[in-house]
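Objective 1b: paired records.
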Amino acid sequence: MAKIRYLLLLALGTALPTSAQELHARVTVITDALSPEYRYDIATLQQDLEQYLNSQRFGEHEWEGERIPVELTIIVTGKTGSWYTAQLFFQSSRHLHSGGTTPLLRLIDLQWSFPYSRGSLLSYQPLRYDPLLTPIDFAVLIALGLDSDTYEELGGTSYFQRAHQLAQIAAAQNAKGFELFTEPGQFSRLALSAEYLNPRMEFFRRFLFAYHVDGIERLPQNRTEALSTLDSLLTELLRFKEALGTPSLALELFFDAKYRELIEIFRGWNSPRLLSRLRALDPKHGTDYERGLGQ
């Protein structure tokens, strides 16, 4: 997988600095809701997490190419003893060979709790549940899997497998957000990682490759051809969704990350059924599509 990624990046003309680490992470910790005496104890969390994410190696392969941009925002809402309550916002992007980035993943956890002591030494523990790091590690592994899928068809499988292993360990501890049994479409990290590994979702993962390599990457060279390709890909994705017959967390997260991009690139594109397709694929953001693309 690493070699294929390397060759594709080379063919696209992208700079290829090599690094064992995969991420270029920026962490923001907002503690305005805490009383001043509580802010001191958590003041080093931002530095500790940035050091952890930017120095840790999460995969088994040497990482080729630029590090993945990651934005991690933690809004701390309270403290009881050494435990904090918080909201977690995770975003990752993919580099484009023409410059800039395209969004890939946006995960939100509004009910997160974790213990933390000032100046803690954080270390990657893939075989045990850690209330602070496991939700972050899971998001990182999903981001790495998605990024890899956009450079090689099904190239992110090993990362999704690692994410699923983490989710299983957390579910065994009855960790919130990793529930073993959920209703269809209800968010659970365990359900999400299982979905990426389900053979039924291989079409969607191949779609991710085509969307980025045949569509987004080609926009600067031939915008009309690239938009036509993307339009056709969305038609195929709608057929897949209708055949799937059940809600898909992976599809929902794709559009959570991409709906603004889709509005921007398709603005002014003459395709009579595009708006109806996007609304059917992503009813959650239907109003946004109508405002951005409606005539």
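Objective 1b, second protein:
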Amino acid sequence: YIIKSMLSDGNDKKVLLLTPGASTEGKRKSTAFAERIRGLIGDKIVIEDCAISELFFELSPDKIAIYHPGKSFDLREFDLVVIRHIGKMINEAQAIVQYCEYFGIRYADGYLNRLILDSKISTQFLLWFNGIRNWPHTFYGNVDEMKRRFAEFGDTTILKDNEGSKGRLNFLVHSVTEVDQIHNDHPDKRFMLQQFIANQGDLRILIFDGKPVLAIERRGVGASHLNNTSQGGSARIVPVESIQQKVIDMCVKVAEVTKLEVAGVDVMFAADGKPYLLEVNNAPQISSGSFKEEKAQKYSEMLLEMVGCGD
């Protein structure tokens, strides 16, 4: 997507004012405030404003972007991004400040640069900026833009809840009509559209206190595209030493960057063997799901080592 900025092409400093939602009343108040600031500042700087919910987030192994589809600007065009307030958009705000940090854009307020892992998009952005970039191509945010770009993923793609877990609200979709229907059925949810990668299963690799301790191979059953055991998939333990070292190293780094002593890193392999990160879980079903005894044993060993009582 090529950004053709409608902002000044000169040397003017550019400031973006962000508010959370895109309700009619919210937009009216936000626009009125921006106009008041423009009147006070004059032509010294360019002031732009929009809602966070209007923005579009894109991520792939070799690209990352946050842009406004209608106003045709990318956040990288600004000298300062001010998040006036966030409402329920904390996960999006986290991705925005990570973006600003990486590209050297000043932002406010600094408290927003904190670790938040209950959102897929904010976690993906965090890891991408720390060099872990092998995610499936992902779209998130403005639904109209998601539908406009749907065809880039072909005729099969994944639509899943940004805050979902255990395979909940995770759909295989084949048309813009399905995308519309799912959004309409779940108006309180925010979904991401993600490249579908044909596979024969995935691995849940448990990292405890920086060490790979257990690897569980999971495969879907029947026509389901989901490999989660919570969605009926089958599972078996595979030796950690049988997994490519580069994959293990990646999972260990994921746990380190996300500051998780207990992490479940989900890795899927494409037909050509290329590994893709699917999710990072900060509560990876240690006391439930499959192989509870094996997970409890490794968990106990971790606790002993953390207090200096290990072998």
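The CA atoms of residues 58 and 139 lie 5 Å apart. The chain is about 30% helix and 30% strand.
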